Amino acid sequence: FYLEQELVDRIQTLDPRIDLLYEPVLMGRPRYQSHHVGHVP
């Protein structure tokens, strides 16, 4: 699923024990707000 960078940053600052591995280049960007399946690049 796609996460906005702002949300990724918030999750990572929540607790230093959290190791969030998120590679947005592997996920397609949503075409519209409720689009949950992005186009794979």
Q: What topology emerges from the helices and strands here?
A:
Elements: H1 5-14
Largest sheet: none
Taken as a percent bin, the fraction of beta residues is under 5%
Report how far the terminal alpha carbons are from each other.
14 Å
Mean pLDDT rating: 77
- 3D shape: elongated
Q: How many DSSP E strands?
A: 0
Which percent bin holds the helix content? 10-25%
In total, how many domains does the architecture comprise?
A: 1
| Number of separate helices | 1
SSE succession: H
Report the radius of gyration as a whole number of Å.
Answer: 12 Å
- Pairing-aware structural class of the strands and helices? mainly alpha
Taking pLDDT < 50 over at least 5 consecutive residues as the criterion, the unreliable ranges are none
Care to describe what's here?
- The chain has 41 residues and is mostly helical.
- It contains 1 helix and no strands.
- The protein has one domain.
Give a summary of the structure in a few sentences.
The chain is built from one helix and no strands. It has 41 residues and is mainly α.
Structural key phrases:
single chain; elongated; 0% strand
